[in-house]
Amino acid sequence: FPRGWRGEHTYITGEPRVSPPHSSPCLTLPRTGPIPLLALVWKQKMVTIMATMAVMSMATRTALVRYMLQMEETPESLHTSALPCQGTVSEPLQSQFHTGTPPPRSRVFPRSPNSPIPKWAPWRGWGFMLGVFALLRYSLYAHTRLGYLFYQRQVKKARERYPQGHSASQPCHFPGVKIVPIPVLSNNYSYLIIDTGCSRAAVIDPSDPLAVQAAIEEEEVILEAIFCTHKHWDHSGGNAVLRQWHDSCKVYGSTLDAIPELTSPLADREKVSVGCLTIEALATPGHTVGHMVYVLDGGPFGGPHCLFSGDLLFLAGCGELFEGSPETMLASLDVAVGLGDDTLLWPGHEYALECLTFASLLELDNPALEQKLQWVTQQRQEKRSTCPSTLGEEQTYNPFLRTHHPELQAAVGLRQGPGEHHNAFRARVLKEVRRRKDLYKAT
Fold first, then answer.
1. Is 307 helix (H, G, I), strand (E, B) or coil?
2. Which domain holds residue 355?
3. Would 3 be classed as within a structural domain?
4. One domain, residues 257 and 152
5. pLDDT digits 0-9 by tens, 165-212
6. Do both 209 and 147 map to the same domain?
7. Which sequence positions are flagged as catalytic?
8. What is the number of structural domains in the chain?
């Protein structure tokens, strides 16, 4: 079906479609007869294909990881940051999980820097198969209607599993400003930013339109703007429906990403006013080629700046490099850090516990990390949100913001080469940390 078809509107909103979305082609289908039946069969078939590909991709990744681990040397020669191979947890890690939560599964990281590294030919073997599956899966999700169908399934399952949202969150108040985190899908966050003086609001990454609309109605505000950090459906899937419900609402984002229903393209450092709020867009490619983050200026309200980071930066983590290089991601992270230590970080996902657990395997003697991990563990046991954080705090334990620290460089077994530029070396460190994080997720 053409990309503009909106026959799935009822599936997402629970209501019949009243009118086609703005600025998008629409194919009108009869309500009875063989065509709707064929459309339903086609939809279910595509969802099945997507689910099958996801399983195959995960199986391929797991097989690759197992093969790589088989090539490791004996446990005695493993890097000191590795966990034992027989399912036990070292004493330093046991002390970090004294709150009663089960320890993480065993992780084995690559060998020490003095050990030989196996040569991987990118055109053959498991590496090639993994790359093909990953590229195909990502392309289908990000660039076709199949991705939207998969997103629909995510929305439906999340509503059934988390009718009140995946986490309990609290609004953040400043004089004249209110920020309402909206937990959506299985781990996403949308954010409603409100000018309390005139009841005008903007929303960041409306994943689930029903959840966002419920927050709008509860706060009794007028939605003026949608800011999308990037094109992925779990951040932009609610744009079309919200535009139907709010005719004057504009959709902001980068032209480099195919953001659904985009009406107002933004350039780097461009500012937008919503009521008395000023929101600045910063180009931060890496996760996608057109990824943007949004900064709420807190100066007029006597509060800190607020960074809505999408999939650039998480609490103790960063987004995967789907469409960028380590050098590009490093430059984007430096842009975020340059906003100042007091800037509040509002991430696009609830990944704090997973990211901090991984970081604790890299830096075993980081008191700030241990303290944050204990707090996050308690929060997640109670299903409470862990955001916001601050950029200053993140630099004490987020490995992707600590590529210049000798402790992290030693932990991943890398040394700066003679004549190597400092930022080029930092990009190598980031690439290695990202590789280990991907292995951590796959095992």
1. strand
2. 172-442
3. no
4. no
5. 999 999 999 999 999 999 999 999 999 999 999 999 999 999 999 999
6. no
7. 230, 232, 234-235, 287, 311, 349
8. 2
